[in-house]
Predict the structure.
Amino acid sequence: MAAPPLLTLQDVALTFGGTPLINRADLTISPGERTCLVGRNGSGKSTLMKIAAGLVEPDKGRLFVQPGTTIRYLAQEPDFSGFSNTLDFVEAGLPPGESAHRARYLLESLGMTGAEDPKKLSGGEGRRAALAHALAPEPDVLLLDEPTNHLDLPAIEWLEAELRGTRAAMVLISHDRRFLSALSRATIWLDRGETRRIEQGFSNFEAWRDAFFEEEERDQHKLDRKIAAEEHWLRYGVTARRKRNVRRLGNLHELRQNRRDVRRPVGSVSMNASDAESSGSLVVEAREISKSYGERTIVDGLSLRVMRGDRLGIVGANGAGKSTLINLLMGRLAPDSGQVVLGTNLMPVVLDQARATLEPGMTVTEVLTGGSGDSVTVNGQSRHVVGYLKDFLFSPEQARTPVSVLSGGERNRLLIARALAQPANLLVLDEPTNDLDLETLDLLQEMLGDYQGTLILVSHDRDFLDRVASSVLVSEGSGRWVEYAGGYSDMLVQRGQGVEARTVAPSKKEPRERTAPAAQPAGKPKLGFKDQHELKTLPARIAKLEAAIAQLKAILDDADLYARDPARFDKATAMLAQAETELSQAEDRWLELEMLQAG
C-alpha cells in the first residue's frame, strides 16, 4: 500500500490585482518523490511554491500537511537579520539538539567558512547560505525555487549529487535543463493558471507539452469551424429567416462564449540580432597575456585566437576571473605582460550579467531608446518601442514601467532586447541565462545559432553551453586557462572531469608545481581486456540505437497518434528519450576509449 502524501494542494486559486494568476492548481507530494514544477515566467510557479510552504494564503483551495512533516522552502531572498555570521544562520535551521557538524559540512561543501557577515554577502554567497539552511535538518519535503541561480558549476554539480542522495521529497523550479533532467521523476506544468501532471521527468516533458499544444490547436480549429457553420445558418438558413430557432441560437452564443473563454498560451519571444558589417577574419588574439592582483594570478601566459564566427564559452568557478578575462580580451583592461590584438571593423555589444547598466528609475522605454522618443532602430528600420517590446513578452502597459518593479527575468529580457537592437558583429554575453524561462532560453539559443557574428559567452548552464558553444575555455586554476573543442560535455570527455571549485592561488614568489600525468608502466596495454572488448562492440551498439531512434521518430511523426492512442504516444516518447540518452552515453564512452587507446 502506497504511503499517504506528505503535502497536498487541492483546487487552489489566487488573484492578483483583479487578474487570476492561478485558477485551478493541484499539487501532491509523496514520500521520496522528485517533482519539477515548470511554466513560463510569470505563470505563478513561485507563488504556488509559497502557497505550498504556507507563506501565501490562496483565495480558495485546500492545503493539507501530514502531522510531523518537516518542510523547508528555499527563499529567493533569505532573511539574515539577527545572525552574526552564516554558520549561526545555518545552525538555526537544525532541529533542537542536533550537532553543528552538518551545518559546517554543508557550508564548507558550498565553498563558505561560516564566518561570513550576512550583511556583506554577494548574491551567490546568499544563495549558498540559504541552501545550507534548507538542507541542514534533512527535511521530509524540500521546496527549491531556482536553487542553481548564482551558483557556479562546481556548486551546481555538488548540489545535484547531494540531492540525489537525500531521502527528502522535492519540488524543483529551475531553468537548468540538465539539473531538472537529472533529478526529476515527475513533472507538474503550470499553464494559464492550471496544473497538469505527467509521471515522467523533465527530459520527457517538452515533447509531451508540444503534443498537448498541437491537440489543443486542433480542438480550437474544430470549434472555429463549428462556430462558422452556425453563423452561416444564422444568416442564411431558410428556417432562420422565417422563425428564429431559439435553442440553436442559444447554442451559438454558448460556442462563442467558449471561444472567448479559451485562455491561449502566452505569446513567444521573438529574437533577432541586429546585423552589422562583418568583422575581419581575426576577432581577438591574445599573445602570452598575464594578469595578477597582488598575490593572486588571474591569467598566466594565455595565448588564444578568436576567429570570425567562433562561439567561445568561458567556464570556471566563481572567482576564477572570468569577467577579468573578458575585459582583457575586449581591450578594456591592460595585461601585466603579453599583448591583446583586436581585429578590424569590430562592433561589439556586451550584456552585463550584473545588470549594473539598468538604472532603477528609468522606464522600460527609456532603457531602449536612451530617453529620446518612442522608437527604436532594429536592423536599420525604425520600430515603435511598444511593438518591439511585444517581441520580448512585455505588455504595452509595461512600456512606462520603472525598471525597479520588474522581476529578475523581465530585467534580463529587457537587457537582451536592448543588446539585440544594437548593430553588432561581436556579442559578449555574461551569464545571459539567469532568470530566463525555458521557452525564452530555447529562442535565445536559436537566435545565437543563426547569428552571423562572433560570440563570447560566460555561462554555468551546461545544456546551454552544449547547444551554443563551438569551444570551451576552462579555468584550470592558478591563472591557467585551457581551450577544449566542442561544448561542455565534449570538454568533460577530453578533460576527464568537470570544473573544480577555486582554491587560493599560491604566492607568485613560490614556483607552481604542475602535476604531470602519471606515466604508464612499460609494456602495459593502454586499455584492459574489458575496455578493448567494449571499444570493439560500441560501434554496433551505437548503430543499433540510431536505428531504434529513427524507428521511434517515424512513429511519433504521425500527427494524429496522440489523439488516437495517447498510451502508445507516451510509451514511444519515453522510449525515444531513453534511447537518445543511451546513444549520447555510448558515443561519449566510445570517444573516451578511443582517446585512451590513442594517448
